[in-house]
Specification:
13-stranded mixed sheet, two-stranded antiparallel ribbon, VC0467-like, alpha+beta, about 230 residues
Length: about 230
């Protein structure tokens, strides 16, 4: 499949939920780990990342790969992955995982056993980065409550995310499997903050985003021009 560039035409801003003074579990770079969830405060200078809720699908000394779990596109799996068995009846949307390789496709799967060709993230969460592994999940009829497909991702080079955390750019929360697949992750994040009695610091002006919609430009023939991300897990 020829890779054509998918374009972000609009971002819907998030909203500050009640209880804006939310406890962060950590603001220490040493607490970063694969599977952790990082969030950006609402007044971040980069509008793309303001309000962002990102799960770290891959993290080691070479860098990090994250997926935004709250930016939903207008593009359906049925349309984007036409021709792949199991995609023909999928009307659930693709999510925009980040600004890197927007024409590329990755997926997160919740599974009780390790899927073939998948990278383990944390708990029962797995990262799918090949046509074969994503196709297998589709052909198995994995439900939207356990399977999300993403366009693009968010990436950091060696030490980059750690530096951003030191500059108070990100707040770190523990892995939460239910949050990754929650229909309204902004609401779930706010609830998790309020229940976190063990937190030692409060994040002022932190906006837990509501689900945001993004419009993705497609070709006249209906092809979204997506391809599969090549990433070494």
């Amino acid at each position: 499949m020829d890779a054509r560039q998918a374009k972000l035409l609009a971002l819907t801003a998030g909203f500050l939920l009640p209880g804006a003074l939310c406890p962060a579990q950590s603001i220490r770079p040493e607490d970063l780990a694969q599977g952790k969830i990082v969030i950006m405060q609402r007044d971040a200078p980069d509008p793309l990342f303001a309000h962002s809720v990102i799960v770290l699908a891959h993290y080691d000394r070479t860098g990090a790969l994250g997926l935004m779990i709250h930016y939903r596109s207008n593009l359906t799996i049925q349309r984007a992955l036409a021709g792949i068995k199991g995609a023909e009846k999928r009307t659930d949307p693709l999510f925009v995982g980040g600004p890197v390789e927007l024409q590329g496709v990755l997926a997160l799967l919740r599974s009780g056993s390790p899927p073939a060709g998948a990278g383990h993230v944390a708990g029962n969460l797995y990262l799918l980065s090949s046509k074969q592994s994503i196709g297998a999940a589709l052909s198995e009829g994995r439900k939207p409550s356990e399977f999300h497909v993403f366009l693009g991702y968010t990436g950091w080079g060696p030490g980059q995310l750690e530096r951003e955390v030191r500059l108070n750019g990100w707040y770190i929360f523990d892995y939460d499997e239910s949050l990754v697949f929650d229909e309204h992750p902004g609401n779930a994040v706010a609830a998790a903050y309020r229940k976190n009695r063990a937190a030692k610091s409060a994040v002022a002006l932190l906006a837990a985003p509501l689900m945001c919609d993004i419009e993705v430009q497609v070709q006249e023939d209906g092809c979204a021009g997506v391809d599969f991300v090549t990433h070494s897990l």
